[in-house]
Amino acid sequence: MENLILDGRKVAQSIKNQLVERVQVLKEKGVTPCLATILVGDDPSSATYVKMKGNECEKIGIKSLRIHLPKETETIELLETIQKLNEDAFVHGILLQHPVPSHIDERKAFETISIEKDVDGVTSFGYGQTALGFGKYPSCTPAAIMSILHFYQIPIEGKHAVVIGRSPILGKPVSALLLNENATVTTCHSRTTNLSEVVQLGDIVVAAVGKPKFIQGDWIKQGAVVLDAGYNKGNIGDVDYEACSEKASAITPVPGGVGPVTISMLLKHTVDAAEETISKH
Fold first, then answer.
1. CA spacing 20 to 30 A to 161: which of 105, 172, 236, 250?
2. Is 120 a known active-site residue?
């Protein structure tokens, strides 16, 4: 049986097509959804990501407000910038590009973002709401993984999902989202003993470990669904794609899998947040 390639570009396009109509309706009501992105310093890959997100916003009619602060910026100055955006009624979403320079207290900066504008799902408050099942804006990559599963109508309930990685914006929230949809979830990490044997139990395997080609083909159970959330140098995922695709019933490629959907979820959350402001009036 041919395995199913989970095409993230197709999923992302479907989400964006719906957003174009919703943005149009908002504009007719006098509201232009606006995403503010904050970049601190001159990291070239971060600058590329911010530019890419801004361009994607503009394609569907979302205003992109780009704020670039010098790398010498202190924590207090960054917090003041975020606070101003919290208070700006024309801004609906705030994204602080990760990583920030090491002298800045990144967690403190994330926590300063208002929950109503935390469209990237980085606050502990937002994470708590996601885990409890009523978060409006889960972290974008976990939200993208769930969107791919839903788009391709892959059953989640009753399945054993194995998540490799426990970062606060990927491994932990995606584990919570899968659990909320009645999967049995095992979250693995660098200290998990017999990792390959644990992964072999997974009907759904989410790779979020940040190591190129880390997940081997013989770790995958025949017929498992594999979602690769890794993105390493040279456009390589966390999964050994060739080897794993021989066993998997469905698999995401890198690039063109989870990545494009992650950006479209950021756009969706920004539009959701803009709609929320109207419903409050």
1. 236
2. yes
Strand partners, 64: 35
Locus of tokens 């570009």: 9
The active-site residue, picked from 120, 203, 238, 240, is 120
3-state SS track over 77-144: HHHHHHHHHHHCCCCCEEEECCCCCCCCCHHHHHHHCCHHHCCCCCCHHHHHHHHHCCCCCCCHHHHH
Q: How far apart are CA 19 and CA 76, in angstroms?
A: 35
Segment 141-161 mean pLDDT: 98
> Of these residues, 16, 53, 159, 213, which one is catalytic?
53
Please determine, for residue 275, whether its predicted confidence score (pLDDT) is greater than 80: yes
7, 16, 63, 97: which one is catalytic?
97
Spatial CA neighbour of 222 closest among 203, 198, 241: 203
Q: d(Cα 95, Cα 169) in Å, to the nearest integer?
A: 13
| CA distances in angstroms from 281 to 24, 29, 90, 275, listed in the order given | 19, 12, 14, 10
268 is catalytic: no
Q: What is the pLDDT of residues 82-93, one digit of tens each?
A: 999 999 999 999
Among the listed residues 125, 229, 226, the one whose alpha carbon sits nearest the alpha carbon of residue 167: 229
- Residue 53 annotated as catalytic: yes
- Tokens 């990685």 appear where? 165
pTM (2 d.p.):
0.96
The C-alpha atoms of residue 43 and residue 29 are separated, in whole angstroms, by 38
